[in-house]
Amino acid sequence: MSEPGTAWATARRSTVGGPLLEVADLSVRFRTEDGPVLAADQVSFTVADREVLALVGESGCGKSVTAMALTRLLPSNALITGSVRLGDRSLLDLPEARMRDVRGRDVAYVFQEPMTSLNPVLTVGKQLGEVLRRHQAMRGRTADRRATELLELVGIPLPSRRLKEYPHQLSGGMRQRVMIAMAVACQPRLLVADEPTTALDVTVQAGILDVLRDLRTEIGTAVLLITHDLGVVADLADRVVVMYAGRTIEEAGTEALFARHSHPYTRGLLEAVPDPERRAGGIREIPGRVPTLRSSPDECTFADRCQRADSLCRARRPELLPGPAGHPVRCVHPLPLPEVSR
Amino acid sequence: MTPALEVVDLVKHFGAVRAVDGVTLTVATGEVVGLVGESGSGKSTLGRCVTRLEQLTDGTVRINGTDISRLGRRRLRPLRRDFNIVFQDPASSLNPRMTVAEIVGEPLRLHRIGSRAERARRVDTVLDQVGLRPEVGRRYPHELSGGQRQRVSLARALSAGPSLLVADEPTSALDVSVQAAVLNLIGRLQSELGFACLFITHDLAAVEFLAQRVAVMYLGQLVEVADRASLFRAPRHPYTQALLSAAPVPDPARQRSRRRIVLSGEVPSPVSPPSGCRFHPRCPVATEVCAREVPELRPVGPAGELVACHLVADDGTGPRLAEAV
Questions:
Q1: CB–CB contact A231 B145 (8 Å)
Q2: With a CB-CB cutoff of 8 Å, which residues 17-56 of chain B face chain A?
Q3: Residue A5 binned pLDDT confidence (cut-offs 50, 70, 90)
Q4: CA gyration radius, chain B
């Protein structure tokens, strides 16, 4: 490919009117031996072109399940309802063969543990070459040149040497960079990054965050970032969706979420990060634990752990509605706005 | 006063891998020292050597003045009452066939502490101290959540009343809100019971919350040891500065205005560590002397913080790579 990637990416996007990704009422149920489990409960959000949207929550909140349901990567015991639109296509209605083309070309994944996602018996060059051949019909010298460019894009020094190496010869950070290079090889419109830095050291993480940030300017990719790390969110995300027990409970721009969050659980998450300024009083804890849901209860799923909860919270399922700060929150007793007298 | 833990020139090699390569560190009675480093720094190996889960290659470990570095298993056993360790993953460090009460009571049984009835009472007391109800004692590890299991690990480690606890990444496998609870618990138990603690972690926020002093480890050696406030306010070693600048803070305004010191390359192999200062190939301010001579961990500045860097002067002044928040 001779034309510069950015021009190519822009051309491809010129048809877009609405959001790049539109998820509406997405629910995921798993059939298990212990009965059904509701993992995602009518989740709705959008991702705009070149936007970094973070799905945030603790384990079991449904963030990874939601991300995998988007491109139907879940096992066959998962029942998915709702709709997922990528551009003008409805992903949940596509035949599997068409879906395979979408995966890799339009949507790509980066997972937490790169070692399990790379083939240990093939060199980095072979694996990158396979992606380029399958989705872009690139071969030989052209493919080699493109593979080198991709490794450069993700900040791998001596790329032509690395292409000849096997995954086990690379460090964890290098493997994750290779995974990102493979994921963006076809200049996907959306990159789903599921805890991409969780297994990495902080100094290595810093480099990966820079790579993800640069993707937007280099090839115009939007990123759906799945993470539990609020530091990573603060660093990278434009907007944030907070999930709890399968439901979206708050959605806001990153600045607004940190400064003017309205849901008690969001506050709990933010205050659970140790802060030396509050050392004397300890870290604020959220009592209790995340419930496992069989079905969608007609009440707030956080009520049992919430100090603000009363009978109203248990009377019906709270709606996701604009709260005191203007952004959507699923709470009948949202937190008041902080005083601006500062 | 005799320190709770005294480590002198500790060396641990696994074949050609020089995991720990000459570490000297003390933890005073009742003190919490944070040991910080990235993967491969040797911090966990150091913790395992200190508790004699590993044989030392060289060097000395003294616990309350008693040299345990070369004691055999039988001589070591009675002394184990005085120190214990908790690990990152409580699921794999708790025996699945034992009830919680049996797990927590095991150190008491091994050390023949008290009668059966006294031991049962002690188990209830310790469970209560870690925030578990007595009936949890009848359950098995698989019936518990990750946070509860880590409480059980802590209860087991503390049941015989040790004066030193080594905590190796005790919160790393837990969710944020559970982490908070376990950190609070360790802090509260430590101030109530007064044991000394070597808190090993890669989580800088946790260390800043819990530790009085912090030791930073890189490729098998300590590069800086200082009290918490001065280390986080004014880190002296270039690696410490880079490490602190790399950890993202959960505050978008602050995080996006920070200057991140991006290190080139990655941690070299502990099989053939670099000459001179082990950090020099990645250090943005390294000079020719850094590649040639091994810097000594020496006291600098008015407070005598320990730094192993040629570029830090005796008065404590040295390179500032960026303002580390």
A1: no
A2: 38-39
A3: very low
A4: 21
Closest B-chain CA to A173? B266
CA distance A209 to chain B (A): 10
B1 close contact with A: CB closer than 8 A: no
Answer whether residue B147 is part of any domain.
Answer: yes
ipTM for the complex shown = 0.84
> Could you tell me if residue B322 is inside a domain?
no
Position B303 in a domain? yes
CA-based nearest residue in chain A for residue B205 = A274
- B256 in A contact zone (CB under 8 Å): yes
Q: How many A×B Cβ pairs under 8 Å?
A: 113
Task: Chain B: give the shortest CA distance to residue A57, in Å.
Answer: 9
Q: Are A183 and A150 in contact (CB under 8 A)?
A: no
Residue A277: band (very low, low, confident or very high) from pLDDT cuts 50, 70, 90: low
Q: Is the CATH number of domain A5-242 3.40.50.300? A: yes
pLDDT digits (tens, 9 = 90+) for A228-248: 999 999 999 999 999 999 999
Contact B204 A202 (CB under 8 A): yes
Closest CA of chain B from A185, distance in Å: 23
Low-confidence ranges of chain B (pLDDT < 50): 323-325
Chain A nearest CA to B46, separation (Å): 19
Q: What would the pLDDT profile of B11-60 be if each residue is shown by its tens digit?
A: 999 999 999 999 999 999 999 999 999 888 999 999 999 999 999 999 99
Helix/strand/coil (H/E/C) assignment for every residue in chain B: CCCCEEEEEEEEEECCEEEEEEEEEEECCCCEEEEECCCCCCHHHHHHHHCCCCCCCEEEEEECCEECCCCCHHHHHHHHHHEEEECCCHHHHCCCCCCHHHHHHHHHHHCCCCCHHHHHHHHHHHHHHCCCCHHHHHCCHHHCCHHHHHHHHHHHHHCCCCCEEEEECCCCCCCHHHHHHHHHHHHHHHHHHCCEEEEEECCHHHHHHHCCEEEEEECCEEEEEEEHHHHHHCCCCHHHHHHHHHCCCCCHHHHHHCCCCCCCCCCCCCCCCCCCCCCHHHCCCCCHHHHHCCCCCEEECCCCEEECCCCCCCCCCCCCCCCCC
**Percentage of residues of chain A with pLDDT beyond 90:** 57
Q: Give residue-wise pLDDT tens across range A139-196.
A: 889 999 999 999 988 888 889 899 999 988 888 888 888 999 999 888 899 999 999 9
Q: Are strands A89-90 and A78-86 parallel, antiparallel or unpaired?
A: antiparallel
- The yes-or-no verdict on residue A16 having pLDDT over 70 is no
Show the domain range for B94.
5-307
Give me the mean pLDDT over the A24-29 stretch.
96
Are the beta carbons of A203 and B242 separated by less than 8 Å?
Answer: yes
State the smallest CA–CA distance between residue A102 and chain B in angstroms. Answer: 33
CATH of residue B182? 3.40.50.300
Domain count, chain B: 1
For chain A, which residues lie within 8 Å of any Cβ of chain B, measuring from their own Cβ? 58-59, 157, 171-174, 201-207, 209-210, 228-235, 254-255, 258, 268-276, 279, 282-286, 289
